[in-house]
Amino acid sequence: MQGEKIESELHTIAAELRIIFGSPKRKSKLPNPLDLLIATILSQNTNDANSHQAYLNLKAVYPDFFSLADVRPKVIEPLIKVGGIANRKSKVIVRVVKQIQVGFPGFRPTLLKRIDRYELTDRLCQLDGVGYKTASCVLLFALGDDDAFPVDTHIHRILNRIGTVKTGTPDKTYLAVRDAITEGIGYELHLNLIKFGRSICMALKPKCYDCPLNARCRWKDKNRQIPASSSRTKSRKVDFMHLKEV
Questions:
Q1: CB 3.0-4.6 Å disulfide test: which of 5, 43, 125, 149 passes with 186?
Q2: Helices (H), 62-185
Q3: What single DSSP character describes residue 209?
Q4: What is the mean pLDDT of residues 34-62?
Q5: Are 142 and 109 in contact (CB under 8 A)?
Q6: Among 66, 59, 14, which residue's Cα sits nearest to residue 186?
Q7: For residues 20 and 60, is the Cβ–Cβ distance under 8 A?
Q8: pLDDT, tens digit, 9 for 90 and up, residues 141-158
Q9: CA–CA dist 246, 35 (Å, integer)
Q10: Are 49 and 155 in contact (CB under 8 A)?
């Protein structure tokens, strides 16, 4: 019963956000799974503009990311420095590529799509530095799995504020909702919740006074004070989204 309740609520949330943000369209050509995996690692703990620049820098020098298995992490640090914590990310990237070459042959869309969603997610999570969010991003953005649903900090915050779930971490939120995604809306719901979390339901000073989900939101600390300089049109402006553009 709890799963049905979550599914119903997520379906309604998706419909409400679709009115504001529309239904996002995919690029005509999906990215290579390894490209998307590394792009997601680069996106950790930084903003989309910086992580995308780090990705472009790396891709310009190493067009085939499988070649990174033979590169020392120190060599790629300057290329990804703009994305932050380059010392750690460079080591993770090189290690992951090596692990894929050895233990994950056939890392291509045609073969990966034959694996059950949760089995593939678990296998990806066995790679160093890869968790549920990164694994789910590979399924959603690179394999075109519209039922995959990565949960980042924005989505975790929003679903707990609204009261859809009561969980302590993004991973626990993911586990609570992954079976409750109405067929085909994972891509739309993921992107629109991120847009919503950036433009309205921010971590600090959320714009509850301009929130389309206000009536169903069960958060006790709503910010109802409308600033004198508030512009509802500006509040819905959304920044560039890195993984959508890989």
A1: 149
A2: 73-80, 86-103, 109-112, 117-125, 132-137, 153-162, 170-177
A3: G
A4: 95
A5: yes
A6: 14
A7: no
A8: 999 999 999 999 999 999
A9: 8
A10: no
